[in-house]
Amino acid sequence: MEFFYSAAVMGYGVGRWWHRKYNFPKLIRVTKSLTILPKIGFPFAVVVVGNSVWNRVSLHNIGFFKWLDEYSDHEDFGKIIVSLAGHDHQIDYMVGILDKYLDIGGIELNFSCPNIRKFDNKKIPKSKHNLYLKLRYDMDPFSYDLDRVHSIRLNSVPLLFGGGSGKVAQEKNWTFIKKFNKEGLNVAGCSLVSIEDITKLCDMGCKEVGLGSVVLTNPKLVERIGVEEQI
User: Fold this and answer.
1) For the chain, what percent of residues have pLDDT higher than 70?
2) Residue 214: other Cβ atoms inside 10 A
């Protein structure tokens, strides 16, 4: 079982200031989703409730070109997956730039933000990098050209004009995971809140698990995962 930090958990790929309080493992990191131009959303619209997190960040980000300018010289770029959002032609353009100038850990196609207007994505671009398709629990993965997709990740679930992750998302996301892993797809685990959930996700056929809201709700568990992964 492999682990990675889900989109935005580590900000733009370099972590957040408060992460220094913990001994988090060094894993693959997925950046905040980037749009081609900066987007103003609600960066602080995040609420932790028990083992769940509600957010309405709405793709708030500095934009693709500013990210390139400020973060593209990161020393450990091979462990960073860049998450992209936008219309198909915009994503195609950003993928082309990443392919030409950078060698990164992969590209995530965010086709599923639960609290932003739909971009109505249909096209999976060509890329030299591994592509990770990020969907919502009620989307059909077979609607896309999966021959170009390395694996599928799941977003938060729509909840009260925003998105819910963690415990509140388990039922819907895990139903998707069980169904499509049984059908031969490679869907990453998510929505874990306890060490026991890792075993459950493994039993569902997950080869990798994203650490998302659990970094907020139970950072000590993330530290423990890092220790046990090294054993």
Assistant:
1) 96
2) 26
Count of structural domains, the chain: 1
DSSP 53: E
Domain that holds residue 103: 2-230
Looking up tokens 């021959």 gives: 147
**Cβ pair 133, 141 in contact under 8 A:** yes
* 155-183 pLDDT tens trace: 999 998 889 999 999 999 999 999 999 99
- Are the beta carbons of 110 and 33 closer than 8 angstroms? yes
Query: Which element (helix H / strand E) includes 191?
Result: none
Q: Is the dihedral of CA 190, 196, 201, 207 positive or negative?
A: positive
What is the Cα–Cα distance from 135 to 151, expressed in whole angstroms?
11
Beta pairing partners, 28: 4
- DSSP of 96-120: HHHHHH---SEEEEE---TTS----
The structure tokens listed for 217 are 């709700």
Rounded Cα–Cα distance for residues 25 and 163 (Å): 26
DSSP 71: H
Which amino acid, residue 146? Answer: L
Report the CATH number at residue 33. 3.20.20.70
Q: What backbone torsions phi and psi does residue 106 show, to the nearest 5 degrees?
A: 150, 180
